[in-house]
Amino acid sequence: xxxxxxxxxxxxxxxxxxxxxxxxxxxxxxxxxxxxxxxxxxxxxxxxxxxxxxxxxxxxxxxxxxxxxxxxxxxxxxxxx
Length: 81
Ligand code: SF4
Hints:
alpha+beta, Alpha-Beta Plaits, two-stranded antiparallel sheet, 19% helix, 20% strand, globular, binds iron/sulfur cluster
């Protein structure tokens, strides 16, 4: 099992749902277009998809974090390297 999961910063998110299009395995949208993350771990086979959603979010509101972290800290993504 992977030690990564996806979290959303609701104060930064502007809706519209690009993240759900890029990573539908863990993110769906509510009726207003804001993301709902299922909270499950991200399998290593899907980690690239999660990191792509993180890097493509126009408001930097998606974060891929390690499960043990109490305070979300972003995992390095291509956009931040
Ligand atoms: S891509 Fe970013 S701004 Fe857009 S809905 Fe997802 S978290 Fe919010």
